[in-house]
Amino acid sequence: MDTLRTELHRRFAYAASILVMGMLALSIVNRTENLYLGIFLALILTFVFYAGQSFFVVLGESGALPPHVAAWALNVIFLVLAGGQMALVSLRTLTHKL
Fold it and tell me: What is the dihedral of CA 28, 74, 40, 36, to 10 degrees?
């Protein structure tokens, strides 16, 4: 039963991950001035995200984590990272203008 619940939550979490990865990409673009470094970081974080997502789904299917936690954990973690990064960039921009 955990497998089915995890799969249901994973499908919704996968759809939401597009928005999360977009926010993460936006925060990377605002952080670095080097285009190649930004592309490299985005690729690495994308691979880390999807490998971690697979890991958490296995934990949810095995019953080690609740299905909703397993499916949504990486989205929440990366969303917090992206939001924090964007907040830091905004603060830095604001302090340079003052």
Answer: -20
pTM reported for the whole predicted model: 0.83
92 pLDDT higher than 90:
no
pLDDT higher than 80, residue 74: yes
Best CA proximity match to 91, nearest among 10, 30, 39: 30
CA dist 97 and 82 (Å) reads: 23
Angle subtended at Cα 84 by Cα 17 and Cα 92, rounded to the nearest 5 degrees = 135
Is the CB of residue 38 less than 8 Å from the CB of residue 32? yes
In degrees, to the nearest 5, what angle opens at C-alpha 96 toward C-alphas 92 and 98?
120
Contacts of residue 82, Cβ cutoff 8 Å, sequence gap at least 6: 20, 23, 24, 26, 27
Phi, psi angles (nearest 5°) of residue 32 = -105, 150
Helices (H), 1-98: 2-31, 35-62, 67-97
